[in-house]
TrEMBL record:
InterPro entries: ABC_transp_permease. This is Autoinducer 2 import system permease protein LsrC. Part of the ABC transporter complex LsrABCD involved in autoinducer 2 (AI-2) import. Probably responsible for the translocation of the substrate across the membrane. It comes from the Bacteria. CDD domains: TM_PBP1_transp_AraH_like. It is a multi-pass membrane protein. GO terms for cellular component: plasma membrane. It is found in: Cell membrane. The complex is composed of two ATP-binding proteins (LsrA), two transmembrane proteins (LsrC and LsrD) and a solute-binding protein (LsrB). It comes from Eubacterium ramulus. The chain crosses the membrane at residues 20-41, 47-69, 98-121, 133-158, 178-195, 226-245, 257-274, 281-302, 308-328. Pfam families: BPD_transp_2.
Amino acid sequence: MNTKKKSVPAFVRKPEFVTIIILIIMIIVVAVLQGNFFAPSSLQNMIISWTPIILLTLGQAVVIISGGLDMSSGNAMAFMLCILAGIMKSATPGSGVIALLVCCLAMVGIGLLNGVSVAYFKLPPIIATFATSYIYLGAALFIMPSPGGGCANWMRVFYKFSSVENMPSALKAFGDKIPTGVLMIVGIIVLWYIISRKKLGRYIYAVGSDRNIAYDSGVKTVKVQIMAYLFDAFCCMLAALFLVGQNQSGSARLGDALTLKSIASAIVGGVSLAGGTGNVYVAIGGAAIISLVSKLISFSGINSDYQTLVSGIILLVAVSSSAIIRLVKTLRAKEGKESE
């Protein structure tokens, strides 16, 4: 008598499967509530509003997989945004070049400061990056105590090609259909695809799984974690470039809510806070879910006094789903061993 149980497809057993199912359900529900959800203009506006959180989530996911955490990503982005807006003058094209160079230097400094604090000095990631977040916030407020600044005309290309004056008509038409944010996200995906196929990508997962074992195996764990934080800082810089092109100004407080959202998005996307597991690509779905929550609440007509409560409950369910799947999987594995 054959007692074999029907095997569940491997993909279904992964936490990422839950993320995709939740995302599909969210899209269906929001689409029903919002009649023009799939209209080209509506989709474009959604992508534009989601771009900063998606970029920060991609960077956050890589850091978490490496065994770290970045509590400073929102303030780091705001710091670079204030650098860009503070240096640039709308009537001076050359100011955009200077601002971009200074921003790149700041990006490297942010990645190194976070990475060295966590990897070299072995400070707890949540403590180290929480401390550096105040450094970035203080620096941002020093540069720009109140919202303001400017943006060189050509730097608006980081938002939309069509928003740049004297842009060739072909590029303007392209920009009207595809925002630059989409190109940024695709660029980060391609960059991570290349990294994940190299030793560095495998080492990031290895260090996140067990730093000591990775070190004993000859992996330069300090270098690997610093590279993960540099990748994260690069994603934050792209978000800052997008926002300065969109708003043509800067604000030190613009990233306040984005840090926790990026962490929640990565976890909803199936990335484990324990490190070593997770899919960076699916983390984009987590960012989309987090962004759709506010839309769902808005269109459902829930009283504004209860919106924060409902939002928290939805996020808790989404975040805990992947953990529940992992727990069930572990229990089934134990049962399987005991029955042998």
